[in-house]
Inverse folding.
């Protein structure tokens, strides 16, 4: 059982480049989340999808777009990367409607130069 | 929206001592409060959680308390061990009825160091 899988694990981008971070879960969860983690800032929510077909903004959505491709997959896109988007990105999933554990991927370390 | 404040940002204790981390939340619609432990290079993992209809929950050396009136909740670790050293996060999840149902908001994290 793989849980939540993120790709890639590491990425270096030049300012202005675009890329998509991929996330897939195999636990039949309804809700999926994208967070960024910066020193001293904790985990800040970028976007989340409460269920397939819906997406909502979190605390820090500017500069990002998301796609809930199907129940398993939730991707995060940076259209024009900026140095301020240098961070570690985590995808998570959970069962909607239940007060249950959110499972996290291993993270993607992104550096924008 | 929901705002979760976590204190302290760093905590250093001697092995065997207790450690307490405190969080406050702003939205009374939050009804689920998990605590996560993150080790270096890994994603956060759930260690204990509490629901809004419960005041206290214990799991071996770890306990969590919730005061809904004051909107704060705390993590208590007793008889700390060096392997408890990690970053700990509290979180609050909005319940049904709100426009942001299911949104999971985290605190800023606490770096816990347990000295042998």
């Amino acid at each position: 059982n793989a849980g939540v899988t993120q790709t890639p694990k590491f990425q270096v981008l030049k300012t202005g480049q675009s890329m998509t971070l991929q996330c897939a879960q195999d636990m039949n969860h309804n809700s999926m989340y994208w967070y960024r983690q910066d020193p001293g800032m904790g985990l800040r929510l970028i976007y989340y999808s409460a269920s397939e077909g819906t997406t909502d903004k979190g605390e820090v959505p500017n500069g990002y777009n998301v796609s809930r491709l199907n129940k398993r997959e939730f991707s995060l896109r940076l259209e024009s990367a900026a140095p301020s988007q240098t961070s570690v990105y985590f995808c998570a999933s959970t069962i909607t409607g239940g007060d249950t554990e959110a499972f996290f991927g291993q993270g993607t370390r992104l550096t924008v130069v | 929206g929901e705002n979760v404040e976590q204190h302290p940002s760093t905590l250093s204790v001697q092995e065997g001592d207790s450690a307490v981390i405190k969080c406050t939340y702003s939205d009374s619609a939050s009804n689920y409060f998990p605590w996560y432990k993150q080790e270096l290079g890994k994603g956060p993992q759930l260690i204990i959680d509490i629901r809004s209809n419960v005041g206290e929950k214990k799991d071996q050396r770890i306990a969590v308390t919730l005061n809904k009136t004051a909107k704060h909740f705390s993590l208590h670790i007793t008889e700390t061990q060096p392997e408890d050293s990690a970053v700990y996060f509290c979180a609050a999840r909005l319940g049904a009825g709100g426009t942001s149902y299911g949104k999971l908001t985290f605190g800023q994290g606490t770096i816990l160091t347990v000295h042998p």
Summary: Residues 84 and 105 of chain A are 22 Å apart (CA to CA). The mean pLDDT of chain A is 92. The interface with chain B takes residues 4, 31, 33, 35, 40-45, 48, 50, 56, 58-59, 90, 92, 94, 96-97, 99, 101-102, 104-107 of chain A (CB under 8 Å). The two ends of chain A are 36 Å apart (CA to CA).
